[in-house]
Amino acid sequence: MVLYIIGLGLSDEKDITVKGLEAVKSCERVYLEAYTSILTVGKERLEVFYGKEVVIADREMVEQEADVILKDAATVNVAFLVVGDPFGATTHTDLVHRATELSIPVVPIHNASIMNAVGCCGLQLYNYGQTVSIVFFTETWKPDSFYDKIAMNSRIELHTLCLLDIKVKEQSIENLARGRKIYEPARYMSINTAVSQLLEIADARAAAEPDAVPAYTKYTIAVGLARVGCDDQKVVAGTLAELEKVDFGGPLHSLVLAGRMHFLEAEVVRAFAVDKESFDRHAQVSQH
Amino acid sequence: MVLYIIGLGLSDEKDITVKGLEAVKSCERVYLEAYTSILTVGKERLEVFYGKEVVIADREMVEQEADVILKDAATVNVAFLVVGDPFGATTHTDLVHRATELSIPVVPIHNASIMNAVGCCGLQLYNYGQTVSIVFFTETWKPDSFYDKIAMNSRIELHTLCLLDIKVKEQSIENLARGRKIYEPARYMSINTAVSQLLEIADARAAAEPDAVPAYTKYTIAVGLARVGCDDQKVVAGTLAELEKVDFGGPLHSLVLAGRMHFLEAEVVRAFAVDKESFDRHAQVSQH
Fold first, then answer.
1. What's the CA angle centered on B122, arms A227 and B223, to 5 degrees?
2. What is the distance between the alpha carbons of residues B230 and B253, in angstroms, rounded to a whole number?
3. Of B3, B21, B188, nearest in space to B104 by CA
4. DSSP secondary structure letter of residue B273
5. CA atoms within 13 A on the CB side of B223
6. In this complex, do B111 and A115 lie within 8 Å of one another by their Cβ atoms?
7. 8 Å CB contact of B110 and A15
8. DSSP letters for A252-280
9. Per UniProt, where does S-adenosyl-L-methionine bind (chains A, B) (predicted)?
10. pLDDT tens-digit series, residues B49-64
């Protein structure tokens, strides 16, 4: 009948919308996408709340077993739950594609995602440039395309939202090579790691091009956000060097590099500052 | 006790989250901000759904009567409802400020807003540049700062979300001058009007600077979105010239100017195209 793609919002089982909850209750089968983001509660809490079994859909399943997920969807409703908003991730594009091929209507139910909830830090959403992703560096792989994007945003004085890497159900190179389905523990990038990687790349770029205007430095004002929308949400503003030392607690973390702030934005961000004197020294603020 | 600022999402009374609904039910007084956006249902439907009276808070009230809204909030809960997400608009900044002064805790409850729900058009949220606002032109006032912002986005191949003007409870110049509290009917900018204003400015800029690369032209691919998240949502892609002639029906409308599209983005957008041949001729698509 229908494939519902339902956004769960950011925190716990009660962030689903009333419309979304009604849709879940109408479904024969309920899948939870659990590899691009997480709630603060496990699937057991969702199951109790919905009064239904919830099947964890990992990347393998979503990418390779769309037909299993969509089985009988011509005659029963199926729910595919996504943390945040259905369109925040592209991971279920194939699933939607397959449903369309099978003439199964796809109904998305929207919700908050970090892309709009980040507004809570005081930097207005319409003053952001392109969003960047920061992935875990390895010894041999340090993708740094975020630097050029931040440079473009900063040149036109815009803020940059940095989405931090999540590694769920990854195999070690050894296990991958041997075809062993043994998975590493989940890893969620902390703001500290993100800042350290940002500064590593800034140093490398400064060494390579000493005359270029840097996209950002350790004195750039940024805002770290942990567990947005949760009761224990933590928002701290400061220079990158300051934020590298702040303990933000458990996942999920996000980071915003501030461009030039309107004075009304600066007023809100300053209230989150770890060191207000340092904030006043380093913030770029416009008075109109 | 608490001032809740609760996002209502985009469509009707059931787009509130379960958490938001519980918060409303705990409140002694419930206000609805009704001048920066609207739902498809009136306050009566909300009142029935909540089992509570809902007071419409217009701009005057929010800006001048914060203390009325916050009356007794030290001892009872108060809800301030906002269409979309609490941080999409800045209109209630003063209210939050006043609550903070009075030591009343402010608890925001997130929801979807057009800033993330626009992802449904197939253009990925992380490929957007700065969001612009398009306001109703008058004979003598044609603010065109959107042009330069779109130019910056388009130069780095990003998409641009255009938020379209809403005029609620505005007074005519005559009534304003005479101090008569008589208000004009609400006006919501259509995609057609937005396109017409965009093209008017493009023509003016091209005449003034004939050698400059235009930020966009009537052949630029764009996506019009009406009533996002509602059952009768309408999404149509085409050149600006094509979209100017499409009937999108009732409010609210939004418009996205496409930058260079990834081929997977283009595939989704093409499915919305009013004329697929024209889309293929004008779309800028990258293959990687």
1. 120
2. 12
3. B3
4. B
5. 28
6. no
7. yes
8. PEEEEE--SEEHHHHHHHHHTBS-HHHHH
9. 10, 85, 88, 113-114, 164, 228, 253
10. 999 999 999 888 888 8
pTM: predicted TM-score of the whole model, two decimal places: 0.94
Mutate to test the interface with A, among B5, B14, B16, B17 (most CBs of A within 10 A): B17
* Residue A34 scores a pLDDT above 90: no
Torsion sign (Cα): A66, A69, A71, A77? negative
Whether residue A163 and residue B126 make contact (CB cut-off 8 A), yes or no, is: yes
DSSP-assigned letters across all residues of A54-67 = -EEE-HHHHHH-HH
B171–A contact, CB cutoff 8 A? no
pLDDT at A180 over 90: no
Q: How many helices and strands (H and E) does chain B possess?
A: 12, 14
Q: What ipTM is given for this predicted complex?
A: 0.93
| A113 near B CB under 8 A | yes
**Does B89 have pLDDT greater than 90?**
no
pLDDT tens-digit readout, A109-127: 999 999 999 999 999 999 9
Reported as half-sphere exposure (CB side, CA atoms, 13 A), residue B161 has a value of: 29
Task: Determine the average pLDDT of the residues in A238-262.
Answer: 97
Collapse the DSSP code of A223 into the 3-class scheme (helix H, G, I; strand E, B; otherwise coil) and give the result: strand
